[in-house]
Design goal:
5 helices, 15% helix, six-stranded mixed beta sheet, binds molybdenum atom, binds ligand MTE, Sulfite Oxidase, Chain A, domain 2, five-stranded mixed beta sheet, alpha+beta, 209 residues, 11 strands
Amino acid sequence: MAFDWLTRRQEREARRAAVADRVPPGQELTDKWPVLHYGNVPRFDAEKWDFQVTGLVAHPMRWSYQEFMALPRVETASDIHCVTGWSKLDNRWEGVSIREIVRRVLPLPKARYVIVHAEGGYTTNLPFEELNRPENLLAYRHNGEDLEPDHGWPLRLVVPHLYFWKSAKWVRGLEFREQDERGFWERYGYHNHGDPWTEERYSWQEANA
Ligand SMILES: Nc1nc2c(c(=O)[nH]1)N[C@H]1C(S)=C(S)[C@@H](COP(=O)(O)O)O[C@H]1N2
Ligand SMILES: [Mo]
């Protein structure tokens, strides 16, 4: 009611100002959810699908689809920021907390880095301590609905504090390592770390870090 006199544009600007501290520099808000990835959307076969944790952990694990879906479920809410310039606020996710996985596999003290493995050889890398944040999860639902195949069904990683290319779609496993190794986009010119608040967008910026 109070905003009846506002034009649509003024309304959008007022809304933007209200959330300004949640939008990193160089980003524009979108209500839609763009689809971005390299290659084709993989076919999903529940009989063949598994999720594996390998490398420097006390208990390497392999979950079938049925077993994975039986793991305790959490709900989170977070904003996402794509390096191409869009941000989408207030996403509600449902899935399995990264902390739940970590508790079960018990990474060894030497395991400082994680390579995330997805269908078709897509990988992305991040330090274990940045994967192991309470808001991070392996998600199968978004805003009350199953993920669309385009957005990573049956499972995607969500690491909202880093640019969204770190949030691998169609994720199939985690590999714990002593040394870092650049993932797919990190090798094709994106920043190894990817903090949206300091605009760590491209690998050429790393020399100045
Ligand atoms: N498996 C896989 N995951 C991926 C990518 C990809 O190419 N393959 N692209 C990343 C990039 S660059 C972005 S911006 C987001 C986009 O997720 P969305 O399509 O759900 O918006 O997925 C990320 N996850
Ligand atoms: Mo991206």
